[in-house]
Amino acid sequence: MVQIPKQSAPSSPAQRPVPTSADVARLAGVSRATVSYVLNNTSAVRISEPTRRRVHEAAKELGYVPHAAARSLRAGHSRMVLMPAPTVPVGPLYSQFFNELQWALSRLDYTVVQYGGVGLHGDEAARAWAELRPVAVLVPGSGLGPEGLAVLKRAGARAVVTLGPERVEGAHALLMDHDRVGHSAGAHLLARGRRRIGVVMPGESGLEIFSRPRLDGVRRALRGSEASVTELPLAYAEEDAARLAARWRTLGLDGVFAYNDEYAMLLMRALQDEGVGIPDETAVIGADDLMLGRLLRPRLSTVHIELPSGRDLAELVDRAVRRPGAAPETHEVLGARVVHRDSS
Amino acid sequence: MVQIPKQSAPSSPAQRPVPTSADVARLAGVSRATVSYVLNNTSAVRISEPTRRRVHEAAKELGYVPHAAARSLRAGHSRMVLMPAPTVPVGPLYSQFFNELQWALSRLDYTVVQYGGVGLHGDEAARAWAELRPVAVLVPGSGLGPEGLAVLKRAGARAVVTLGPERVEGAHALLMDHDRVGHSAGAHLLARGRRRIGVVMPGESGLEIFSRPRLDGVRRALRGSEASVTELPLAYAEEDAARLAARWRTLGLDGVFAYNDEYAMLLMRALQDEGVGIPDETAVIGADDLMLGRLLRPRLSTVHIELPSGRDLAELVDRAVRRPGAAPETHEVLGARVVHRDSS
DNA sequence: TTGAAAGCGCTACCAA
DNA sequence: TTGGTAGCGCTTTCAA
Known about the structure:
Two copies of one chain form a homodimer.
Chain A: H1 21-28, H2 32-39, H3 49-62, H4 68-75, E1 80-84, H5 92-107, E2 111-115, H6 122-131, E3 136-140, H7 146-154, E4 159-164, E5 172-175, H8 179-191, E6 196-202, H9 208-222, E7 228-234, H10 238-246, H11 248-251, E8 255-257, H12 261-273, E9 283-287, H13 291-295, E10 301-306, H14 310-322, E11 330-332, E12 335-339
Parallel strand pairs in A: 1-2, 1-3, 3-4, 4-5, 5-11, 6-7, 6-8, 8-9, 9-10
Antiparallel strand pairs in A: 10-12
Helix pairs in contact in A: 1-2, 1-3, 5-14, 6-7, 8-9, 10-12
The structure holds a DNA duplex.
């Protein structure tokens, strides 16, 4: 790591206090009320053009910026949509989804804020979020329990939406059941005539939320067939992959769902180094449909995942905020379809 | 995209108002002051144990959560550290850095918030941030100008830190000059005996902040030598890479710096499909030292990039907050070193 | 067309 | 040990 050395310096004179609307009023020679009317373009009241100009000029001269906290305190509500920041590196899929969401919510005049909550868990996290009195909270994963939801609602959140595997009673839910991903992969391998199927389980913590349901999905796809499932713990490291590959033939697997494309790449490389034929000896399929899969040889089969559109989620949020009493909506939003290439 | 259908439902009875400290006081049979003392563990004042218990019970019963905006309004300052959310998908390097930073700041009792600012630019963005009255603002990239800085300072931000290629007068700066990355790559290729060197310039917008300085770095490394530089515009798409590879031999390049490992993988694949020998005919080097580079054949040479530690940045922030008048610190924090593998 | 003033929820000073 | 209360910056009702 690059070091940032400690450094000291003489302190400069105390900074000027932050200008308030009262300062603007004083400078413009009007009342604070008038300032508010002018700066907010209040339509219920007519302010003369010269006065408007004076106010605007005063505001600009002072560099006045309204105080969001004071405003929302007075208003009794905010337009803040809060979302916990992801703590695991997130792929291009999610990035795009989030950007879209954020853009759409901005258009609806909401302010989107990601709350950095490393170290906060469960209800503790919900309390921290509630302190900010967001008008809506979007919770990915499965970190929200009934108690957390209650806290948020009591704190005035008019819309709480979970994005994850299960719904919470009373909250809106965008169900993203990764079971489907595993199911697609499993069904595909089965259809390709594979019967002894491995499923990679990432060793990295935080991924169980995805890997567990994906495994279940594979199991579900194979139910009623004579095919079997073998769990394959695998850390995202070359040596671990090599170790797994070394004992590959003893496992006797003819197909493997590698959790996602990145793990698939790791595993494929190790298998190829070991001389295991892909797809003849073992078929490999990943998930996420990343570019890298297309660049591998053999080209990697994968499960393409569709997230909901950010615009749709933004509209759901807006609807819920406007009709807070409405019954929670639940939507299955995770699409999964196999992209068959050469590795399976 | 998966559609979320519109949906309607009858609205339920109006929700109870959000409980305030006055409600807690009423229920506990004490004053609001006492509630505040108890819930904040104010050490300057002793509250009897029975009273404490009554207050805590009342708070729990009502599900009371303090109102952060009211608190910081009263206090005259917040503990919020604001950072614009990245709009481009961000790699594991940055994710780790951010997590570390966030964790370290939490330990120092700051609240870290990422502000979703798609669509906001320059001073407009600075104004939006200023409305939240953050105690510190961390700005990656080069989006902050002198005017934006002034706005933030006037709004009471006690620390403004830029993380990018250049400093802004009056703000702390963590200089991350990607020139160094290009310089390392260029020097390496030169040392390997390459003289006609290509530099991939990603077609994706938003990446110029990195690609331009990296290119300059290569140029700088080659200055004084007889080596030449050729810019290679390349979109992150197979076809575009194939197109580039098809005319590769007419370019007569014997070395290429591929911007980063992902573009390197894309280009290498296209070159190999075209029958171009790597590294004999053309040496390839990427950047970022991603896992995928180790999985390629030949293994990808790369420039390993070191970001500052999140802990150090957190300490810089804390220092600056505590001594707001101190002279801005500037640190060169981007480390770059070549990891030589088989592709160069 | 403009101003005076109340009050959002909270904390901290001063008094009891 | 506890309570009364002023006031943070803002909007909005009511009066002038």
